[in-house]
Design brief:
- This protein is α/β, with parallel strands linked by helices.
- It folds into three domains: 84 residues, Recoverin, domain 1, CATH 1.10.238; 186 residues, 3-Layer(aba) Sandwich (Rossmann fold); 38 residues, no CATH class.
- Helices cover 34% and strands 12% of the residues.
- The protein starts with 24 loop residues before the first helix and ends with a helix.
- It comes from Fopius arisanus.
């Protein structure tokens, strides 16, 4: 979307942005940002300060966004007027309608640096035998997707893109797991259940008696610990130093997300591992798109990560639910891409405004918490 004419507008080419004294601001987003301290920060600020009044106006900030949010071919991504104003206001700490050098440093260090030099984790969800050719082969589900089709594009990404961390998740269920339909007799179904125990079939959702009561979708027995079905597919590349995350290990609660079980009772090790790696961005794909992949993406967004779903590296159970998953991710400022777009994004050459906006909202929350703590 175009920016309102009430903002200071400048006609910019797709190749470069020429500001003052022949300085191209796009150069600032392709240098070693660790060196932009002291006088170098002053020089950068001056490059964006077109009228040299010692402040950045909303119009000058628009120039920053136009330089920042573009793909590797120089195409500029538009930023919605409302979002542009909201991002500007986050860094306008003094609330005077302008950014001074001190405020710009916060913007540069906490926002621009991450947008241009993200730390990226690749999370490959549940590419296991049972989901591809075993007891819960998703080809037998409504969407009739072939789970094996994710392996080649995932392997290509592992071969061609340098991620800061790679994770593989595995469904890892005990034999008495609550999700298995053949274990239905082991637990009492609540009277409020939408499907009574004697009529329940595979893929139905029942409510087990509590406390607390538990809604559970029933699946065929799958991914039992230490079984062939629980193994990662033999054709999936396993890279050195990758981290495996096991989920669904509690017999009494299912775990779609790689972050949490479905009742948010127990956290996996994923959050702490991501923090250790300093990850800012998570690229998520695998099986099944509308179940474990989708649940993981939602939790990644809720946890504050810039989240990217890789469409052609994911396959799902139900076409309608896959579309719902996509809509939910987009509505939460996540991005859905194809594998061919990942390398440029990981390398900071393709910078999406949705991810910039998501980061700005997280910074806003962090600044608010910091301010509240300072008042105590």
């Amino acid at each position: 979307m175009s920016i309102s004419p009430t903002f200071q507008s400048v006609k910019l080419s797709s190749a470069s942005i020429d500001l003052t004294n022949g300085i191209e601001t796009s150069d600032y987003f392709n240098v070693d940002l660790k060196r932009t301290e002291g006088c170098e920060m002053d020089a950068c600020f001056a490059a964006f300060d077109r009228d040299a009044d010692g402040f950045l106006s909303i119009g000058e900030f628009e120039l920053i966004c136009r330089a920042l949010f573009r793909n590797d071919r120089g195409k500029i991504y538009g930023v919605e007027e409302k979002q542009l104003r909201e991002i500007f206001d986050i860094f306008d700490l003094k609330k005077d309608g302008l950014l001074d050098l001190q405020e710009f440093e916060v913007c540069w260090n906490r926002w621009i640096k991450v947008c241009t030099r993200p730390r990226c984790a690749f999370l490959i969800v549940d590419v296991q035998n049972d989901f591809i050719s075993g007891s819960l082969n998703i080809k037998q589900c409504a969407a009739q997707h072939d789970g094996s089709e994710v392996i080649e594009p995932i392997n290509h990404l592992l071969d061609t893109v340098t991620f800061d961390a790679v994770f593989y998740s595995l469904d890892w269920h005990p034999v008495d797991h609550v999700s298995f339909i053949d274990n239905l007799h082991m637990r009492e179904v609540d009277e409020s259940s939408p499907v009574p125990q004697e009529e329940a079939k595979v893929y139905d959702t029942v409510t087990f008696k509590g406390p607390p009561s538990l809604k559970q979708r029933l699946w065929p027995r799958h991914c039992v610990q230490d079984s062939w079905g629980a193994e990662l597919h033999k054709d999936l590349k396993i890279v050195d130093n990758a981290i495996k995350i096991y989920k669904g290990t509690n017999p009494e609660v299912d775990s779609y997300s790689v972050f949490w079980d479905n009742k948010k009772l127990t956290e996996t090790t994923l959050s702490s591992q991501l923090q250790d790696k300093g990850a800012t961005d998570i690229y998520i794909c695998g099986l099944a798109y509308d179940v474990c992949v989708g649940a993981t993406a939602v939790d990644a967004l809720t946890s504050g990560y810039r989240t990217i779903l890789i469409d052609d590296c994911s396959r799902g159970v139900d076409l309608v639910d896959i579309e719902k998953t996509k809509a939910m991710v987009i509505a939460s400022n996540g991005v859905i891409v194809t594998s061919s777009q990942v390398k440029a994004m990981v390398e900071g050459r393709d910078r999406r405004p949705e991810l910039g906006y998501k980061l700005a909202l997280e910074i806003k929350q962090s600044l608010k918490s910091q301010s509240n703590n300072n008042r105590k």
